[in-house]
Give the backbone structure.
Amino acid sequence: MKVAVLGAAGYVGGELLRLVLQHPDITEVTATSRSQAGKPIADVHPAMGLLTDARFAAHAPADVARGKDVIFLALEHGDSSQLMGTLVDAGPGMIVDLAADFRIHDGRVHERYYGVHPAPALVHRFAYGLADVRGTELRGASAIAAPGCFATAAQLALYGIADLPLAAPPVIFAVTGSSGAGQALKPTTHHPARAHNMFTYAGMGHRHEGEMLEQWRAWRHDPAAHARMICHSGPFVRGIHATLHAQLVDPVKDVNEHLNRRFAKRPFVRVLGVPPQLTQVVGSNLALLHGDSSDDGREVQVSCVIDNLIKGAGGQAVQAMNLALGLDERAGLTAPGVFPC
């Protein structure tokens, strides 16, 4: 397959390159970057020197997309909407967008979290690519919106209890590393501000809550179903640790047994007998879950840890591509994580 990665100089773009350059079914990779055009990829991503001596291309996006089997967009939010019409016209076999532009189908929900959509006519072309839940439902999709990192961790925890009667809306407490904010320097990602520190942000409505709610309402068959995600920045680089708390109508004795049923045969989801640690997933496409309950079984907690740049971005995008094309879902994604990290 011939693949292109647009916006390949950032953290997510670098992870995508690392994965697609080692994918057994991909034979050609083109990487583009406006800021790094003409430079060797290994100058920006030194580890890629083991995989390629190519340079970042400076071609127009439509020219890059033409003739490709798959194009991945690792661009800033809003950029995908501006380009998508010309990319669709260029006729690549598949488009996988890692930005938030096409994740939410309900226009009212999108407007609440992002404002008026600049390309609403294109939204329903995109399948929501939550690979570990949708699985083979993605088969045949030609346009995929990869979920956000916070949304992925939160939704995997929520999906585990989505079939249970709830006494109140669940709440997810989630913490992310500094790489989730992207490569550009910001006051809250500057090392002296981030190290040895932790803080809440967008606590009453993080943008990823919109896509989470749309899926949650579909799983619950209730357009008014609600859940709250409280997001935090933590003093580490990679990963997301999310803990869900929910009150149940009927008691559940063994939460882990229930989670195992919900995620049966999902190759990248593991349910552990003890709470997972973040470092157990860094560098991998795994999601580790653990459930616990109160003595009466009416309160449950589900913990979920993922690598925000892989399971929460590049790895899930490749996994969704595999599923859509009917390839081995695990292709290019079986490398274990690194520890210590």
Q: What stands out?
A: The chain has a mean pLDDT of 95. The first strand starts at residue 2 and ends at 6.
